[in-house]
Design brief:
The complex is a heterodimer. Chain A is an all-alpha fold. Chain A has four helices and no strands. Chain A has one domain: Helix Hairpins, CATH 1.10.287. Chain B starts with 6 loop residues before the first helix and ends with a helix. The chains are: A mainly alpha, B mainly alpha.
């Protein structure tokens, strides 16, 4: 297994972070958060990858057949479920921000500081 | 007794489901009772689990997937004194907060109770989880409920902004934990904390282990709001309704510290990382910055929020001393600070309900008739500063002793000064609001912010009772007979990696403890002196704030807390890089 998937995971993570830091739009910001999050999927799946391994379904397969690690796939699924909730909440908040203040630019909300 | 372990999670989550499903079907009073009863029973279960943890301990393997030859496939809940204590504290504070919200909030109360119960269940799961991935899941679940609770009063832009900042920074913290745990799994092939500890033991620490622990620690420190991950906290706490703030400040912030301590001692202490020095420094910096920022606030909830940052810093320094005594000090402080701060937030709720403002300068002299509340407020402020034998004192004294033993005697004076700064702000605000003392203007303080008061005509007597109860309990923490010896025992249990692993993986019951004495610890003369000095300093600073407003340039410090989420995320990245850099350099 080459180091490439890990490098790409790190790159996706940093791109997402750059997007969050510079974002001027809450919807865009939420999307950047999902970008950062997708780096964790890639990282988890690369960790569990086995060269030549099949899917980790063992019904009707000879004992000892190589398969990829099912644990990281379970982790990825849980991660997706958990994060979808968070993103849904953030998008709902963004909608409310738009209703109350007419803007979705985090720099212009300006109520809290100091 | 292992059947008891899942109950603190199951009971509130089931109750939350019943409260949602029963809305409009069952009478409202019954649903209120279900929620409050669930929280109270969680508190009782926490106390029972604490007793069990001293008498052999308990491990629950879900679905009966027990470990085989030290290899864990299943997921475990592990009972230990601190985890159980956290459950008891969380149950108690949520119970009081739900009772409080009966009068404080009226609209959409069902949804509120549900979110509180989900948050409680998740916090309890976090406190006893013995599995790294489960820690992440509980953390996120508690987080989602908390983000929704923060923006619960969605009539203003303020709560929304606070909620957005909170949600984004903490979700990012969650992803850091997840990345770190993925790397840990890649190295050790394990998610069970005890098994990770065994796999890491005996190897020299390398880059991967440092990066993995850095990411996990940074994620938990985001939750715990340690400098420079703390920016979201003041925004979130300033806008959340008072009973929500009580739960956040009382248990939710502190749970991040428990996470760092648990993951370090059960798993990563085996790898020989030198994390203590940096944690103490970060703790001292957080304490001083939190105390200073608290002193610069006029918004009462924001002031209390920075006081939380200050005390979290003190507790982190205690943990960073890496000794059972230091952890015990942090735990005792957690108890006193959690109860006192929760009580003070509830007291602010009383002020909002009666006077419809949380602004120190606006409220100048307007609460002159509220004597009982004035007493509660002052007692809370004094409990937080750690007047000898009151409130935080026991925790401070134990951290002092641990710092001296660890050769870091330079740290305690800073920690006491920081606590004094935060309490000075509270005393100053109390004197202005209840006595009408001091000037009406102070250019040093941050500008005014809006606050959403509850509907008019709210009865404040029950609110005052809740606030007084928590503050009163907090004040007594230092004189509970036997608490010091029990928390030190808890510290030894948390720190003892080999015993933990044998208990979890090999099913070795925990050695029975000899009966712990019910004695009162007499703090060292040094701690008493520090306590008196800090009290004097707090009073002096409060007086200066009232009558001789300082003219010091603090614009830069305030400008850092900009309220813009992008800046906060930048600081999270900087902080993570800092942790990783320092730990990588000091690795060998």
């Amino acid at each position: 297994m080459s180091f490439l998937p890990y490098a790409i995971a790190a790159w996706i993570c940093l791109v997402g972070l750059y997007g969050i830091v510079t974002s001027r739009n809450l919807i865009h910001l939420a999307v950047c958060l999902t970008v950062t999050q997708s780096s964790t999927y890639l990282l988890l799946l690369s960790i569990g990858y086995v060269r030549g391994g099949g899917p980790p379904i063992f019904a009707g397969v000879a004992l000892g057949t190589t398969a990829v690690d099912p644990v990281v796939q379970a982790l990825t699924l849980t991660d997706i479920v958990v994060s979808v909730t968070v993103i849904a909440l953030i998008l709902a908040l963004a909608l409310d921000v738009h209703h109350t203040s007419g803007t979705i630019d985090p720099d212009e909300m300006g109520e809290l500081s100091g | 007794m292992s059947w008891m372990l899942p109950l603190p999670v199951v009971v509130p989550l089931l109750a939350a489901a019943v409260v949602v499903a029963g809305d409009r079907l069952l009478p409202g009073r019954l649903l209120d009772a279900v929620g409050i009863g669930a929280a109270a029973s969680v508190c009782a279960l926490g106390i029972a689990l604490m007793l069990v943890s001293e008498r052999g301990g308990a491990v629950q393997w879900f679905g009966g997937w027990r470990p085989h030859a030290g290899l864990a496939i299943g997921i475990a809940f592990v009972d230990d004194p601190f985890g159980a204590g956290m459950i008891a504290l969380a149950g108690a504070i949520v119970c009081v907060a739900l009772l409080y919200s009966l009068t404080y909030l009226t609209e959409a109360a069902r949804l509120f109770d549900t979110l509180m119960l989900v948050c409680l269940g998740a916090l309890c799961g976090f406190a006893v989880s013995g599995d790294l991935f489960n820690l992440f899941v509980w953390l996120e679940l508690a987080g989602v409920a908390a983000y929704a609770l923060t923006g619960f009063e969605m009539r203003d832009i303020g709560p929304l902004q606070g909620s957005v900042n909170f949600a984004i920074t903490n979700t990012l913290g969650g992803y850091l934990v997840l990345t770190g745990l993925a790397l840990t799994y890649a190295r050790t092939g394990a998610l069970n904390l005890a098994q990770i500890g065994r796999a890491l033991a005996g190897h020299r620490p390398d880059g991967l282990v440092v990066v993995a622990f850095t990411l996990i620690a940074a994620g938990f420190l985001c939750k715990a709001a340690v400098v420079p991950f703390h920016f979201w906290l003041a925004d979130a706490y300033a806008v959340a309704p008072a009973p929500v703030c009580a739960v956040f400040a009382g248990v939710m912030t502190d749970i991040g510290l428990l996470g760092v301590a648990r993951v370090y001692w059960t798993a990563f202490s085996a790898a020989g990382l030198h994390i203590g020095g940096l944690l103490v420094v970060l703790g001292v910096v957080s304490a001083l910055l939190g105390g200073t920022m608290a002193y610069l606030q006029r918004h009462l909830k924001r002031m209390l929020a920075y006081s939380v940052v200050c005390h979290i810093g003190i507790m982190l320094a205690g943990i960073g001393l890496l000794s059972p005594r230091g952890v015990a000090g942090a735990a005792d402080m957690l108890l006193a600070h959690g109860l006192a701060t929760a009580g003070l937030f509830l007291a602010v709720g009383v002020v909002v309900a009666r006077l419809r403002s949380v602004d120190e300068l606006h409220l100048h002299g307007r609460a002159a008739g509220m004597h009982a509340l004035a007493v509660v407020w002052t007692l809370g402020a004094l409990a937080l500063v750690g007047v000898p034998y009151l409130g935080d004192y026991l925790g401070h004294a134990e951290i002092d002793a641990a710092a001296n033993a660890a050769g870091r005697a330079w740290a305690p004076p800073f920690l006491w000064i920081a606590g004094a700064l935060a309490s000075a702000a509270l005393l100053r605000a109390g004197a202005r609001i209840f006595l009408g003392a001091g000037r009406r203007h102070d250019p040093l303080l941050s500008p005014e912010m809006k606050e959403t008061p509850p509907r008019r005509g709210t009865r404040t007597r029950p609110l005052l009772a809740g606030s007084g109860l928590l503050v009163g309990l907090a004040a007594l923490v230092s004189v509970v007979p036997g608490l010091a010896s029990r928390s030190e025992y808890g510290g030894e249990r948390l720190v003892g990696r080999a015993a933990y692993a044998a208990h979890v993986l090999d099913g070795v019951p925990v050695a029975r403890v000899p009966r712990l004495p019910f004695s009162l610890e007499a703090g060292s003369g040094e701690s008493v002196l520090y306590g008196l000095g800090a009290t004097f300093l707090a009073a002096l600073l409060a007086w200066i704030g009232l009558y001789r407003p300082l003219r010091i340039p603090v614009g830069g410090l305030k400008a850092l807390h900009s309220g813009v989420v992008g800046d906060y995320v930048m600081w999270v990245v900087v902080g993570t890089a800092l942790l990783g850099g320092v730990w990588a350099v000091t690795m060998r």
